[in-house]
Amino acid sequence: MKRCHLICRLPRALTIMRRNRKPRVGAPASVDELPDPYSDLPFPSPDQCRNMRDGLLALHGFPKEFERYHRPTAAAAETPPFADESVLDGLVLNADTSAVENAIRCGGLASTKASCIKSIIRDLMNRRGEISLEYLRGLSVAEVKAELSKFKGIGPKTVACVLMFHLQRDDFPVDTHVFHITKSIGWVPMKADREKAYLHLNKRIPNDLKFELNCLFVTHGKICKQCSKRGGKKLSSCSNSCPLANYTVP
After folding, report:
1. Residue in 118, 145, 157, 210 annotated catalytic
2. Which tens digit of pLDDT belongs to each residue from 104-129?
3. E strand or H helix that includes residue 105
4. Residue 141, SS3?
5. What are the C-alpha distances in Å from 202 to residues 13, 80, 83, 198?
6. Cα 196 from Cα 174, distance rounded (Å)
7. Whose CA is closest to 5, among 147, 134, 135?
8. pLDDT tens digits, one per residue of 171-216
9. Is the peptide bond before 44 cis (omega within 30 degrees of 0)?
10. What pTM did the predictor assign?
11. Is 64 a catalytic residue?
12. 5-17+73-166 architecture in CATH?
């Protein structure tokens, strides 16, 4: 997470700022401090989470795109990931916004993301004298959330992704794939919004399963379009090899 690597590696997670959004007041609470909005829903259980992880792992294997984010061993942890120097830091800071847009256009929302990326890098340089977020490693989860929430364009999903992928903290981001799959299998109510789904799933899913299960849900949502059909229930035509094909909660 040296310099602006974290920012440049997570452009998809940058959220669109609502023009009339009211400023945040105070530090966001950690998941542990907030109540489960669906405390009467006993799903998923630890066994259900483990069985789902094992089923998706058997089907897909662990996704290679996420291997680099595995929690490092004690020896590897001495060297933070992405600690290599890069001239990209200064180039992005000084580049025209249009050039940054062109570099990340394949991810969609290039104009919004480019503006946010440059704003974050500029803020880091002004506030801390360097383009680095390494200082986040020494903060608590609540402090990380409060710190990242100061930056334009950083929303709850971005924060959760930073916590899980780059800081190796026990968190469970809820992206489009995770949101629709967990609703379709009954782990969260169909009426749930993404923020409540995030709180509920983080309360219910064991910490030691969060990383792998999250990565597998994202991968499965990309591959098995039927399972992540927007706003709908699972389709009966889902492949029999899919762990979600005949999945039901008690």
Report:
1. 157
2. 998 889 999 999 999 999 999 899 98
3. none
4. helix
5. 19, 26, 29, 6
6. 10
7. 134
8. 999 999 999 999 999 999 999 999 999 999 999 999 999 999 999 9
9. yes
10. 0.78
11. no
12. Orthogonal Bundle (1.10)
